Amino acid sequence: MLPSAGLRRCSPTIAEPGTPGDIDIVLYRRWILLALALCGCHAELDWREDAPKEADFSVLLPARAHEASRPLAGFKGDPVMHLWSAKAADTLFGAGYADFDAADARMLALMRDALVRNIGGKIVTERAVKTDMTEGVEFVAEGSISDARAVLQGRVLMAGRRVYQLAVIGPVHSVSTADREMFLESFRLRTPAR
Hints:
- With 194 residues, the chain is an alpha+beta fold.
- 22% of the residues lie in helices and 39% in strands.
- The chain folds into 2 domains: 10-39, no CATH class; 48-189, Protein Transport Mog1p, Chain A, CATH 3.40.1000.
- The radius of gyration is 22 Å and the shape is globular.
């Protein structure tokens, strides 16, 4: 066995948990994780926050938003969907809302199904989602657009009598899962729903 006296380490040591150097390592690890997460994002997407004055939410969109409103046929009270959308990398990202007489789980299912019909698709995964101000469902559906395989990842949320719709629709491999998740997770209510 060789004596250890006089030997020096050539590589830096890692601080013990709870020491001042430990904070630097934690921050370093967080930066590495952030960098890895951003590497999964599509390079052509120019993410920007959109917080429409008319709406009570903000969301990240990958390009400049276009606004549209349209009546929702078949719903009591003639609700209007107010939608902000952006197209990038052959994919449409959209966020919007409509006010109903009353919002409930049945209403969320109807809105989800209407989105899935846009691609003639079938739901492949679905889960409940809840935040401090909303609750609803997140889902992924597969179908087609112009005879090409397409994916739809969306959320339909309710708060009070307002229903929010978030959707990413495009060819299967046009946008990464990380980009779709970033869009969905960026949605924030600015004020409590009415």
